[in-house]
Amino acid sequence: MHLPNILKSKGRRTTKAAALIATQLNILYHGCIVIIVMSVLSSLSIAALVIGFIKQGECPIQAWIPRWLIIFGSVGLGWCALFILMAIVKMSCCHREEHCRAENCFMTGFCFLLIVFVFFFSWMIAGSVWVFTVRTRVQFEYPSDANYCQKLVYNMAFGCILTQYGIIGLALCLTACCFALVKICDRD
Prior knowledge:
membrane, disordered N terminus, TMEM272, transmembrane, mainly alpha, 6 helices
């Protein structure tokens, strides 16, 4: 059911702005933007995976950093692929309410996404511990030293973790805005 129809079916009056926002959110949700965003995010996962594989063993200060990149890249690619697949299923099978028999498939995919997200979040915390605890001691010039880490490996892990924190912050802000919109519509 589309968001404007939900608002109307509950006997709520919607302002033109709220109806317009709801319509635009539906277009974004059902559109190709999801696929484009996930494709861009998957490029980060691919880069992390490649760097982790190529530079394995080049970070003696914390051997888990290249491994973290490999698992981050693998899980990130799987998550993006599942999300893209769900968007394609939603756009092709659920564009009209009477054709929404794929809802069970969609909900199953959503449950898998949630499980992968919980793992991804836990893995981000582990990576944060491994990367940030050696931040002040790591050096990039002498590979034979115990506190060496290849610069690309360390900076890639550092950047991926900061990107994850940024995406989580953005998602929380968007969620708060959506809840605020619903509250405003409830008052009217």
